[in-house]
């Protein structure tokens, strides 16, 4: 590899060949803990995300499988028949049992 440094005439080629011929050494195992940051655990674990997805799928299935029909009969709670009839004003009504 040719050197592009104008101050150097290119006599580094022997040194570069010597460096390329050297075997790379790996750092010891205890250096790895010092050099690399500790891994951060994920915010949500895989079982939690799978359970959440199952709940959403069940909710969607229930929502889309229930029919949207109105009851074609009378109202469920009918007013009692024995109440006095309220004529003009609801605020003017006073019950007799006060």
Distance between the termini: 109 Å
Beta fraction: under 5%
Radius of gyration, taken over Cα atoms and rounded to an integer in Å: 42 Å
What is the makeup of the main sheet?
A: none
Write down how many β-strands occur, each being a DSSP E stretch of 2 or more residues. 0
User: SSE string, helix = H, strand = E?
Assistant: HHH
Query: By helix and strand content, what is the structural category?
Result: mainly alpha
Structural write-up:
The mean pLDDT is 76. The chain is an all-alpha fold. The longest helix is centred in the middle third of the chain and has 20 residues, at 46-65. It is built from three helices and no strands. It has helices at 13-21, 29-35, 46-65.
Layout of helices and strands:
Layout (H helix, E strand, L loop, with lengths): L12 H9 L7 H7 L10 H20 L33
Would you kindly provide a brief summary of this structure?
This protein has helices at residues 13-21, 29-35, 46-65. With 98 residues, it is mainly alpha-helical.
Task: Provide the descriptors you would attach to this structure in a database record.
98 residues
């Amino acid at each position: 590899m040719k050197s592009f440094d104008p101050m150097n005439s290119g006599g580094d080629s022997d040194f570069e060949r010597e460096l390329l011929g050297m075997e790379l050494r790996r750092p010891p195992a205890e250096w790895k803990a010092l050099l690399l940051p500790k891994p951060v655990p994920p915010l949500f674990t895989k079982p939690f995300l799978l359970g959440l997805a199952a709940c959403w799928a069940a909710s969607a299935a229930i929502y889309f499988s229930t029919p949207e029909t109105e009851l074609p009969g009378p109202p469920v709670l009918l007013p009692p028949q024995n109440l006095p009839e309220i004529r003009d004003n609801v605020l003017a009504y006073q019950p007799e049992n006060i």
